[in-house]
Design goal:
This protein is about 35% helix and about 20% strand. It has 10 helices and 10 strands. The chain has about 300 residues and is of the alpha/beta class. The strands form 2 sheets. Strands 1-5-4-2-3 form a 5-stranded parallel beta sheet, sandwiched between helices. Helix 5 runs antiparallel to helix 7 and helix 9 runs antiparallel to helix 10. It folds into 2 domains: about 170 residues, Rossmann fold (3-Layer(aba) Sandwich), CATH 3.40.50; about 110 residues, 2-Layer Sandwich (Heat Shock Protein 90), CATH 3.30.565.
Length: about 300
């Protein structure tokens, strides 16, 4: 079991990290982990979620044992935002893990694609790695996050070490998330549409559709913005951008404070209105929350 450097209580969630730069190093890290999962009593088969090439190498190395491991291409698992990955993980554990979430998961985010396409995107995935320590703390899941230095750069690997309890540089997840949130957001453009007071869902839908979002997507974006207004009294709003990168920014009269806001899966498995910021995070590529004084800014970007 793990414990954080800040002295928080140990949790069942076993969150590990392995770094490799060759096929041989990947196999050396993956085989003992999967063997541990195969030997664990009362656990379902372990799962390997990785790049297709790495999965092929792993199948060859496993030989006959490959039939006892589930293989998932990482682009099928990590198919959207970091918040979508939280939903994917929670849903998989609910459907396939043993009681208490017992299962071994070998996991490789798409650092050669979405997760590594920009500094901002990488920061979102490091946040996901950090908050996973809290979100899945009650679960007896064993996860090995593998980082291929051929696709994940040195800066990403260094940041990821701070999100894994089995490293010497592990940071408390709340502290690490706060550090990421301390980075200022880019300013809104001068031509952003300003709305005083509350913002109406119909107005957002009409505006987004006029900016090029298909009506169904404009409706989803408007619903996400409406869900975010539930965080507190809205004193003003800004709208800007063109499809698919439509942006809404809400000014709230109170702080949000909770770094897990919108990341905790609701009881209902299906995505539906009424789930607050969780719904917004599942719909939008980015949802940034910045507390400031007695209020907060919430910026939602559709894609």
């Amino acid at each position: 079991m793990n414990s954080t450097r800040s002295g928080t209580a140990p949790t069942p969630f076993d969150h590990r990290m392995a770094v490799f730069g060759s096929d041989d190093d990947f196999v050396a890290a993956a085989l003992p982990f999967l063997a541990e999962g195969l030997a664990a009593p009362d656990e379902p088969p372990p799962v390997a979620i990785a790049a297709p090439g790495n999965l092929d190498v792993l199948r060859d190395a496993l030989g006959g044992d490959a039939k006892d491991v589930n293989f998932i291409e990482h682009t099928d698992w990590y198919s959207g935002s970091a918040a979508n990955a939280v939903a994917q993980g929670a849903g998989y554990l609910a459907a396939h893990a043993a009681p208490g979430g017992r299962i071994h998961l070998l996991m490789e985010p798409v650092w050669g694609g979405r997760a590594g396409r920009s500094v901002r995107e990488s920061a979102e995935w490091i946040r996901y790695e950090a908050l996973a320590n809290l979100l899945f703390a009650p679960m007896a899941t064993t996860a090995l996050c593998v980082y291929d230095t051929r696709t994940a750069g040195s800066a990403v690997v260094a940041a990821a070490r701070r999100a894994h309890p089995d490293t010497e540089v592990y940071e408390d997840p709340i502290r690490l998330a706060a550090e990421l949130d301390a980075v200022p957001l880019p300013p809104a453009p001068a031509d952003a549409r300003r709305i005083a007071g509350g913002v109406a869902k119909d107005a957002v839908r009409t505006w987004a559709n006029a900016r090029g979002l298909p009506l169904v997507e404009a409706e989803l974006f408007a619903e996400a913005v409406a869900e975010a207004t539930g965080l507190g009294p809205v004193t003003g709003a800004l709208l800007w951008g063109e499809a698919p990168g439509c942006v809404a920014e809400l000014s709230l009269a109170r702080r949000v404070d909770d770094p897990l806001a919108g990341f905790v899966p609701p009881p209902a498995a299906e995505l539906e209105p009424g789930q607050g910021l969780w719904f917004a995070r599942q719909v939008c590529a980015y949802v940034d929350v910045r507390d400031d004084g007695e209020g907060a800014t919430v910026r939602l970007q559709y894609a």
